[in-house]
Batch of 3 targets.
Target 1
Amino acid sequence: MTNDQNQGKVLTLVVLISGSGSNLQSIIDAIADRTIKARITAVISNHSDAYGLERASKAGIETIVEPHQQYSDRKQYDQVLARHVDRYSPDLIILAGFMRILSPWFVTRYSGKILNIHPSLLPKYKGTNTHQRVIDAGETEHGASVHLVTEELDGGPIVIQARVPVERDDDAESLRRRVLEQEHIIYPQAIKLFAQGKVPTE
Ligand code: GAR
């Protein structure tokens, strides 16, 4: 099944980040050069020192910082997050290096409307530290995936993937850099597919 109700319109996006925000930048750039027809209405970070916040400000995008430390309960934090998100009623929520697991409550609330990018060829290497784990396992191929977010961690339907060969002299850092280059290509493409109604909803 696909969702085609967004075809032709300017998609509104809220982007969630925790760090550098280079994927956020690739989306800002893809909007600026009209590769995708979208508008980022807010960038939300759980870290006040995330460099992605500066990228957003430079692009004239509203930023919100909502640190998670003061919330002991995951759902409680996610309810605060949802209050921010709902002020913008986005068509799509983009997780771009947002390093928190979302509660089932949040995921259900925005079902079919959250995309995540993960640095591996899912379903392989869910979780963290993917590049080192790929090298340790002697894999010859690695990559990145954009997927719809469901309650299963890194487990929703895959929208698009990019493959990267693992070179003999790769370490985790060199591999991370090459995978990241591919992430910057596929995330805007995934948003375009969503806009075209070509994202599987189940
Ligand atoms: C990216 O490599 C992204 O795939 C990864 O964090 C990095 C964020 O970089 N996400 C995850 O590992 C989520 N499980 P960025 O802040 O420069 O976009």
Target 2
Amino acid sequence: MEKITANELRQKYLDFFQSKKHIIIPSAPLVPENDPTVLFTTAGMHPLVPFLMGEKHPQGDMLANSQKCVRTGDIDEVGDNRHLTFFEMLGNWSLGSYFKKEAIEWSWEFLTDAEWLGLDPSRLFVTVFAGDENAPRDDESIKIWQQQFEKVGIESGICESGCEAQEDSRIFLLGAEDNWWGPAGETGPCGPCTEMFWDTRPEEGKLSGSHEKMVESFRLMEIWNDVFMEFEKKSDGSFEKMSHHNVDTGMGLERTLTVLSGKANVFETELFEPIIAKIEEISGVKYEDQKNSMRIVADHLKASVFLLADGIEPSNTERGYVLRRLIRRAIRQGHLLGIDQNFIAEVAKIVQEMYGGIYPEVLDPKISINLTQEEEKFRKTLERGLKRMEAIFFQDSNEVKSSQDSSRLLDYSHAFDLYQNYGFPLEMFLEELKKTGLEYSEKDLIREFNEELKKHQDLSRTASAGMFKGGLADNKEETTQLHTVAHLMLAGLRKTLGGDVHQKGSNINGERLRFDFSYGEKMTEQQKKAVEDFVNQAISAKVPVEMNEMTLEEARESGAEGVFDNKYGEKVKVYEIPGFSKEICGGPHVKNTGEIAKVFKIKKEESSGAGVRRIKAVLE
Ligand code: SER
């Protein structure tokens, strides 16, 4: 295969899925929209959770995109050959449409067909869910993979879970730890996944040893994950088959580019080379000589540019704190490279040039202003920290002289105090300490520092634990209630504004309902009140919600309201709230409107494009 660029890889992926009738949706922002429960968008599926839970997506049921993602869980790992805080995830989704057969066949076609990536199939290996007490072995996926390999004359032996690779091993069975995805929270959609791996060193001959070992030694690199959401995890811990099936796939752009360009290292691809070249130029240091620092500066500043572009500003809390930490770590690593003047905006400029064509938001001029301000602030912090250190050393060394205990010349807790109160990094403390000629044990000092840090982090982790729980899955009941309310509201709108009103899209989370509908004028106060009254009446009437399956034609004839006129499949579900609403929908809904037991309120009504209005509503 010819050398491929990142832009080509991204574009090919999107073109491929467009040719398979997917709608290409834009990347959602890094700050999850209307979801205060998580810090950042961490996967392509993340912004789609409401739709994976059964809500209808306005663009249809087959989607694909390239999604900006930030994961900071691995921040300390950055500097090795593959961990990144910012990355792009290519993904395709079926929302109740196609399932395993198409997903796997398309993955195969995209990877191996000469028109697309044209990868050598003999270098591809896959993993499939082995089965456990909750769900059976994914035989269907095994069979589909075997058919693909058979087409090109490759024997596809199965390597059972826990076994070592044999001569013909091609499909590795792994347990839930590796091949099960989700749910995002405690409960919700989940299912087995199948992952595709690339053999980075075929010259070493047949695979040998366990799958895990080959991944650890980077012989096999994961490139793509197809998740088949077919189960719902219930609050009692059981897994139930869902009536609708979703596909969620994710391919890391940076990693895939790495293996496709035959590199062992993501930082040596064109997605990092220009940034590293700039850092070399500013510092006068060669990448080869200080790889780790260079990688951290490059990764962190790239992530910072994207976070700033999505409206985050450095601060001491939550998202702003993560951004501040990334920027400060980059400056600190710059210091190790001998850069002590402002430099981060200059590096950021390269990132902006690289990505501006794909993600124009990174071109915002406020990004470099913000970076420089933050850099100046941090440099002042460092200066203050250094002054404080001088005072400590002086004072401590006098104390020490008069002390009996000459084995300990410095109160180690100063290191943590400085870090805590001045943001002064431990590494810098150690460097300064070296210059003083004082006696100390670096090992003990670091140990004490880490103990303090751990105590502190445990506290903040408890506080932030709630932040990371999947918002929707945790507010499942509220979400379901708002689903039913959306039906009631549409019926109320049609009754009040006329039968030309149809749904144009919706977005529900545990806190509120956002609903778009066709209508050309601003609603009056009376009209809004009439819709509210209609919904609230239905809630107080405690009406049982009925569900019937029928063909699309039968549903239409029965007078059910249908939201979109494309593909519902053979049979559709019709949810009826007798006397109030009848609508085609995948669910879920409450069993009785009385469960809602709250008051429905329209908070906002505004235009959302030509002939479309948008309502934001809540249950109070
Ligand atoms: N959600 C899955 C992942 O992140 C597939 O997109 O790997």
Target 3
Amino acid sequence: MKLLNFGSLNIDYVYDMPHFVQGGETATATARHVYAGGKGLNQSIAAARAGAQVLHAGAIGPDGAFLTRLLQDAGADTSALLQVQEASGHAMIQVTPEGQNAIIVYGGANHCLTEAYVQSVLRQAEPGDLVLLQNETSQTAQIIAQAADLGLRVVFNPSPFPAHPEQLPLERVDTFILNEIEGALLAGMPEEQDGDVIFDALRSRYPHAQIILTLGSRGVTAWLGGQRYDQPCFTVRAVDTTGAGDTFCGYYLAGCCQGQAPAQCLRAASAAAAIAITRPGAAPAIPARDEVESLLK
Ligand code: RIB
């Protein structure tokens, strides 16, 4: 079983800030770094480092060669990547001394996916494969619909949260992986809600779906195979939380592809995310499998 990821690829411009810049304020960054990122790329790298077979589909511009190389170095198959003239997607990320982030994403090449491209990539899917997508590329509705038509299991990480979720065929999603803010929005409730309230609302709104709700330092609550799971988080000192959710997602799905039990997948994914937040950057912070095994021991 492989993971077919229709995923964004970004160049991350990361600014170390004393605090998040406010409206009307000019603030000075204490450092700037350029890293590989994009929720899709991060998730593929995590899944590949965890040992899964990963086919990454997406688009990059002339400036994106290093993104392709990084995916390849992690062991992901990049043969389906689309090379376009539009500049690669990028993100501007503020990181505070507490390791919290605020992100602006610009789609760029990620928005050059076409329906025909989606169709051609899905021809490489085999029964049982997992199809993963986020909300940083074009064609999200088509990817969900076409993959579901082929009988493939669709995993949707609705991040950033879609402006018009009602336009997506969400009833065809097999598994949602999302954080509290995305969960509340998807459940149609105010953002400031208790995790359990959001979880129950998602379950009643999408009774057919599996749900993995990440709750930051309060761990993860999931509904998988008709059963509830609660996975506490591993306590570490946060340096940069960027990409922690992506690391969790990639490691979790790698475990699924490898036939591991849900509790085992959630535990390994939480350990991987914990390691990722102890390091700067998104993609560069994603741990190798043996580092995760060491923490689990
Ligand atoms: O989830 C973190 C990612 O979000 C960053 O790498 C950035 O590119 C944005 O896509």
